[in-house]
What does this fold into?
Amino acid sequence: MALAVHMSPLSKLYRYQLAWGTAGTIAGLFGLFHSRGLSFTSARGAETGLPHYELHWMTYNRLGALVAVGLAALGAVAGATRKPALAGIAAAGFALVGLQTLVQWRTGHGDNLLGSTGPTLGFSVALMLAFAITALLAGPLSAIEYDEPSRE
It folds into this structure.
């Protein structure tokens, strides 16, 4: 007889935060690996993905990759420790990364501090939305009482 595992929506929410944070950390580490030959704040980042097949994932210099790893790891820690405030901080950080990319890459004003381009903007916006939505939902969901099924 198989036991059915019932999880509350709040537990699922924290698992989503952990999954998004882990995926973002891996993507940031991938960018860090590809940017290892660049200067720390090179205006043009190293491209990850398969550019020969027009599959562009993200571009980072080493600073941008470290920022992505740090913010995504913070989001993963938020899910693992069940602290929605940490997910909110990660969301705000990714919003700033997206804003920096939009202003400096798209408009061409100033040096591109993180070496980012358009695909990196999409990555930042996706993680910002994931962490912001899960952080905002954690409050109302934590106020709901859930009946745990008996394990008999």
